[in-house]
Amino acid sequence: MKSLAVINKSAPFGNINYRESLDITLANASYDRPIALFFSDDGVFQLLNNTDATLTGNKELSKTFGLLEMYDVEDIYFCQSSLAARGLCEQDLIIDGQCLTGPQWFAKLAEFAHIVTF
Amino acid sequence: MTTSFVLLINSDVNSQGSFSGYQFANELIAQGHQLKQVFFYQAGVNNTNALISPASDEVNMVSRWQALNSEHQVELVSCVAASLRRGIVDSELASEQKFEHFNLASGFRLGGLGEFVDASSSSDRLVQF
User: Fold this and answer.
1) Cβ pair A92, A45 in contact under 8 A
2) How close is the nearest chain A Cα to the Cα of B59, in Å?
3) C-alpha distances in angstroms, B79 versus A14, A53, A117, B90?
4) Assigned superfamily of A4-117
């Protein structure tokens, strides 16, 4: 099975990229396809630990991301410069993952056979 | 050497991405590669809406995709969940949901994300538009 990297670059709630990205992630994970999640640009806003999604008429994101563990999606990476540019650090995030510098980011991505971006 | 491809079309019917994906599909077939599946997801499912009818001097993407299917037997699968979100159903789903109409264009087929996983995880290349 070819491995898959899913890159999330969209902030949540303005559109449903975050939700459809999660759907495709869980579908692939349920077939035991090797998969990893990458968060960069405004995509890092999906991971804020003090977000109340219900205020925007959306489902709570913490429940949503809770599914990742259930589906054994454990390889999660954050773009360090995207976090820094938005005044965020790993402590602000709701899920555990690895923070990568630019060169580390591209080296990690290169390990995957396929990439999709949302 | 023949390379196998799956195309993921996330671009709306009225965006350049969908036409670029169509051109890419034709070119890789022309070069002798294998196109295993075109999977429509996100706003890409709007490419499968039979009711899309642009002005006569504009490109009709729905019929372009249909031609790809009829001329090259390329499998055109559209995500059922993404389609339901955007109001696209086939006749079976329409009666299941008690809708008066269906609007999935011929040549396309609704399928689950599992079909995308199956096809893409065993293909050499996955290209997203």
Assistant:
1) no
2) 26
3) 22, 25, 17, 12
4) DsrEFH-like (3.40.1260.10)
Q: What is the mean pLDDT of chain B?
A: 98
Per-residue pLDDT, A66: 86
What is the per-residue pLDDT across B3-12, written as a single tens digit (0 to 9) for each?
Answer: 999 999 999 9
Side-chain half-sphere exposure of B89, counting CA atoms within 13 A = 15
* Structure confidence by residue, pLDDT tens digits, A75-112: 999 999 999 999 999 999 999 999 999 999 999 999 99
- Please identify among residues 14-43 of chain B the ones whose CB lies closer than 8 Å to any CB of chain A: 41-42
Output the CA–CA distances (angstroms, integers) from residue A20 to A16, A104, B71, in the order listed: 6, 27, 31
Domains of chain B from N-terminus onward: 4-128 (3.40.1260.10)
Nearest residue of B to residue A30, measured between CA atoms:
B114
CA dist B69 and A67 (Å) reads 37
B121 and A27 in contact by Cβ < 8 A? Answer: no
CA–CA separation, A90 and A43 (whole Å) = 14
Looking at residue B111, what is its pLDDT?
Answer: 98
